[in-house]
Design goal:
With about 280 residues, the chain is an alpha/beta fold. It is built from 14 helices and eight strands. The chain has two domains: about 5-120, Glutathione S-transferase Yfyf (Class Pi), Chain A, domain 2; about 135-275, Rossmann fold, CATH 3.40.50.11810.
Length: about 280
Amino acid sequence: MKTGIYPGCSLTGSARDYNESVFALAEAFGLELNQIPDWNCCGATAAHNLNKELSLALPARILAIAEKNGIDEIIVPCAACYSRLVVTQHELKKNPELKNRINEVIEMDYRGTSKILNVIEWIDKYIIPVVAEKTVKPFNYKVACYYGCLLVRPNKVLNYDRAEDPQTMDVVMTKIGAVPVDYPYKTECCGAGFSVSRTDIVSKLSGKIIEDAEYRGADAIIVACPMCHSNLDMRRPDINKYWATEYKIPVIFVTQAIGLAIGLSPEKVGLKRHFVDVKIS
């Protein structure tokens, strides 16, 4: 079994902390991750609104390269990238004619043989079964697990967890000693790609997510999406200004929380790159 990783644009730029924590975990658990060579942007969340063919060709090229390099499964840490790759695989599987057309566009032979996993599925498959053996400092905090829009939707395509009340990340966090709070904002939108064009919308939506997490006594919000993290963390000054308050709850990637629990340093998992200070360790 050869496992590949598709970092996408975020993990090589604004979400370097996430990237560092994913590879730190892989190293700590002896898991090999082969970065897909010559990868391209997946089209993120916008391409399918502009050009259907392009929105399928971009992910298909990534998947075709993975297949060409003998990669059996692909870990996709970004929820938006994960959604685009899985949706493309689904669309091309049910429409052979379209698949042939996309193969002509990308000038490659995409077959659809690689298994695509989001980061929670990867953790659940390879890390959780042995995490108890490596946990040296249980993550004894109350946490609000925030999945965002794209980790579980569209549910009929992704077939992953429950669309309105997912539980997988909550279970993962309990395995390292955390206590997930009952959190109704798990899958509410944070504003997603409006982060630059409509910061006011992000401030309004993300503010509600943060407010409820603090109301329920959470010590941290746990995420598995770089866009969600960016909106909840980097946009905190805008959020505080919009809501005329001072929310201080940190936003932590699930990979960072596990890293801390197994004794990795805050620097090793990228905590020092956050805008909102993370005072737990």
